[in-house]
Design goal:
DUF7144; DUF7144 domain-containing protein; transmembrane; 4 helices
Length: 136
């Protein structure tokens, strides 16, 4: 029997599928932020120097921010494979914080920031668009 999105089985499968998509995207985002954090802490010469930027921190400071957000995103990404409500809520929160952090640090590494911001937007979309039966 083929299930459609309108049938009860199809809705559950769609919810699980989008949550798994968001989990994989969250893991990718987490690892990208983890690597960016390590780069900022250990070898910050890869970043652009922007002397008149309003949100200027030390590059090591941005490195620590991205490192902690990356670790949190990886842990929540693993938790999202269980398709639980708490992981979806924390996933949206961490993806939003990661998106804001990458927006604020975009002048230091623009292309990387844009890619991670797009991944965060996909994570937020994937976690917010579906309301499964476990939420009711």
């Amino acid at each position: 029997m083929v299930t459609t999105p309108e049938s009860p089985g199809g809705k559950s499968e769609a919810a699980a599928g989008l949550t798994v998509f968001a989990a994989v995207m969250m893991l990718i985002t987490g690892f990208l932020n983890l690597f960016r954090g390590i780069m900022g802490i250990l070898h910050n010469a890869v970043y652009l120097k922007t002397p008149d930027y309003v949100f200027r921190f030390s590059l090591a400071g941005w490195g620590w921010v991205h490192l902690f957000l990356g670790i949190a995103a990886i842990m929540i990404g693993v938790g999202l494979f269980r398709v639980s409500l708490w992981a979806r809520i924390l996933g949206v929160a961490i993806a939003a914080l990661t998106l804001v952090a990458n927006f604020l640090s975009a002048p230091y590494y623009p292309l990387w920031s844009i890619v991670v911001m797009a991944l965060c937007a996909f994570v937020i979309w994937g976690l917010c668009v579906v309301r499964g039966e476990e939420d009711a």
